[in-house]
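agent> Task received from the user: take the single chain below, predict its 3D structure, and emit C-alpha cells. No templates, no multimer pairing.
agent> Plan: (1) validate residues, (2) run structure prediction, (3) serialize to C-alpha cells, (4) report one or two observations.
agent> Step 1 OK, no nonstandard residues flagged.
tool_call: predict_structure(input=
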Amino acid sequence: MNITTSFDRNYMKYAIVMLSSFCANNEGSHKVFIMHRLLTQEDINFIKDSLSKYDLKIYSLKMDFSDIEPMIPVTPYWTYETYCTLKLADTLPDDIERILYFDTDMIINKSIDELWNMDFAGNDIIAADESNGSCRYENIQCGQKVIFEEYKDKFRYFNTGTMLLNISKIKREYSYKKYYDIMEKWKFDLPACEQDILNYAHFGRVKYIPWSKYNLFARDGCRDGYSYDRVINGDETSIVHFVGMKPWNSMGLHYDLEKLWWDYAKITPIYKELMEEFVEDTLTNKNIENTLRNLDSENKQLKEAVRKTTELLQKITS
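)
tool_result: status=success, residues=318
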C-alpha cells in the first residue's frame, strides 16, 4: 500500500504510533510518504529507526508554503502542515496511482485491505462523513455556510482524517493552483482549513464509506457505546480517530477507548518516553485542579443565589 501523512516535529512521535498500528495490522511491504515543512534529515532517520522492524520504504516530501504563509490561519492544531495534501498530487512520483492519507492522531486497528482495493467508481476521493455522520448544513459554522451555500440542498461533508485519493485522476484534473484559487476566492477565510478546500473542490466526486468502520471519532463514539472492548473484540471498527483532546494529553477527562492508543504506543521503541512525558505532564498540569476550583466557586455562588431567591419568595408569600 501507499500511505501518506503530514505533521511537524511536535507530532512526530504520534505519527510513529499511528504508523506502527497500521503496520501491526497490515502485513507486507508498504511505501510511506511523509509530508512536512521543517523536518530535518535527523528527524526522518529517527522515524525510520523507530519503524525499522517493519517492511517500509519511507520517503520525505518537503513542502513549501511561503506563498500563502502570511495569509492562511494557523493554530496549535491547524498548522501549515495541514495544507500539505493540497500539494500532494503535484509532488508524488508518477507511478503512484492511489494513496491512503491518515491523520497522525489515528489508530488503524484492523486490516484495511478492503479499503485499499476499493473501486473509486469514477470519484476523486473515498472518505467518511464528518463527526460520526452528524454534520449537516444547518449546524456547520457561519463561514462554512457561506462557502457551501450553493450545495446546501445536497450538502454532504467528509472528514479528511482518512482518505483514499485517486491520484492518477487528481493529477489530470487538479493542481495546487486550483486549490489556491479556491483559497483566494474565499479570501483565505476557511474555518476548517484544507478540509473545507477539499470538500468544496471535490464536491459530488466523493465516494462515502462507513464512518463507524473507517473514521470513528473516539470521544463521540465512546458516548454512543463504542467502548474499548467493543472496538477490540468486534469487527465493525478498523480506524479510530482521536479528534480534540488526545490520549497523550494530560488535560481534560479521559475515557476507556484511549487505551487503544496506548496499546499501540506500547509496541513502539518510544513508549517509555511517551509514558514519562504523559506522567510528568499529568503531575504538573494544574488544569483539572483549576477546573475543580472554578466549579466549587460556581457552586457556592449558585447556592447563595438560591438562598437569596428562597428568602425573597418567602417574603412575597408571607
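agent> Step 4: summary for the user.
The longest helix spans residues 287-317.
agent> Done.
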